[in-house]
Amino acid sequence: MQELLKQLTEHVGSIYLNYLLAISAVLLGAGFLLSSISICFGKPLSSVWKTYRSWLYMAPLILLTLYLGREATIVSVTLLSFLGVKEYARATGLYEDWWYMTMIYIGLFAVALLVSIPDPGTGALGWYGFFMALPVFAIEFIIIVPIARNKAKGQLQPVALSILGFIYLGWMFGHLGFLANSQHGQGYLLFLCFAVPISDVAAFTSGKLFGKNKLRDQISPKKTWGGSIGSFAVSMALPWLLHFSFPHFGWVELVLTGIIVGIGGQLGDLTMSFIKRDLGIKDMGTAIPGHGGLLDRLDSLIFVAPLFFHMARWFHDL
Amino acid sequence: MLNWMYSPAADLNLSLGERLKKFPREPHMWMYLLRSVIALCIRFWLKVYHRFSVVGQENLPLGKSFVLIANHQSHLDALCLTATIPFKHLHKAYPVSAADYFFSSLPRCAVASVIVNGLPFDRKDKSSESLEICRQALKKPGTILILFPEGTRSESGQLNRFRSGIGRLLEGTGIPAIPCYLDGAYGALPKGSLFPRPKKLTLRIGPERQYSREGSGRETVKKICHDLQGAVKSLRPAVSD
Questions:
Q1: Does B37 reach chain A within 8 Å, measured CB to CB?
Q2: Residue extents of the structural domains in chain B
Q3: In terms of CB atoms within 10 Å, which of A33, A47, A234, B237 comes out highest?
Q4: What is the ipTM of this complex?
Q5: Percent of chain A with pLDDT over 90
Q6: Whole-angstrom distance, CA of residue B18 vs CA of residue B33
Q7: What is the pLDDT of residues A215-256, one digit of tens each?
Q8: Is B195 in CB contact (< 8 Å) with chain A?
């Protein structure tokens, strides 16, 4: 057994192996817990089971992508941003307008390109300077659409929706792909993909246990302060527990990581909630059974990824 | 400041299968692109393999809503009729397809909705509702319905009796009906065979017919069916190969 573990460690690296074991343990434990609750208390829990079952194929997919490395990660993030933008556009009605969609899609390609190619000045992976300047060009591309088609009536709304769609779901989420360029990329990404959903689950669980006062009743009536504080506490503990993911982090970075995941994750969740509430829809789509649309799953990560990226880069370069 | 008006897709909370069956379909950029590319391939193949030719293309009142009516001998029919529609109007041309056949499984649904752009027609229990969907579709300017009033593929190659649906759809409306006759499809791909044979296909498109002044009622429906059947029959060549 130890021999096998040793060989595996040599093959995939100790960080990856730790996560492989941790994720398997969490999924097995959750499955066991859910079955005991439904057997002991006689509750059917069908919606929770549905959510759980979707994790059973999402977790291996994420693990496989991160195992395959930088290129696979960038391709996956790009694909997710395309599908996410599509969901958003279908939900807002922007999808009917090919002009704006084409501009957003061009922007998404640009994100993928700038994340992939090396910086011509320094040779580092990912053209950081241009990537950061990209919103300027993307917004100008979107803004010239009404001028190009000589149309003013009702154009402000699609322009605004397109800019939000590209910046939030394309460029900000694209930072996740950029993290793959870092020498510590695998650890960062494994941590984010593991910690963000865990803090989500913590919010759900502690909300069920201690939730009384509504957090934001006009946005998401089911969320409570109890859930929010529970999630924050778990998120603050996770960077210390999973310190092996980024051994070069000092205590300041660990605290900041906890805050980013604990607060940013919930804000991301609430962001998607208010968008959905304003649109008058319950879910962004039906892509993941038990979760809703793709954006219902990615909401926290979209908010957390760029914050974590800039924090990590500020302290340690990429 | 007033609130913005959003228009979320009507099929947002439907699964993929349900979304493909739904009509009218939501606009979908990638689906249009895929359909256009496949249509280009189909047109090329019809031209080269079947030496497909069209007589009377100028009879199509493009830009207006109209109904294309043809004899039904094989699965090639809908493809041939769609191939006469210019690309600009392709995504508004809907072959009316049997829901119990073309929309019965996910792969069939995908082909019927993405490639053929079919309008699912329930010919068994809900034909009135399906006719209403057709009527609503025709209200959008530029809609083209491709309809086979025989209701199913002919097993002998002969023109069968027209069902009453087409009469009920057209009675009392000013929607032009364009009769067509596709010749050669029975020899190329009869009911029950899998691979098409390289037979020559010719489509003859007749002048448009309108039934706005006929009034309505059972007799009118019968009359329309009879008239259209005659019109389609008259386009059949004297000696069919």
A1: no
A2: 51-189+197-234
A3: A234
A4: 0.77
A5: 83
A6: 21
A7: 999 999 889 999 999 999 999 999 999 999 999 999 999 999
A8: no
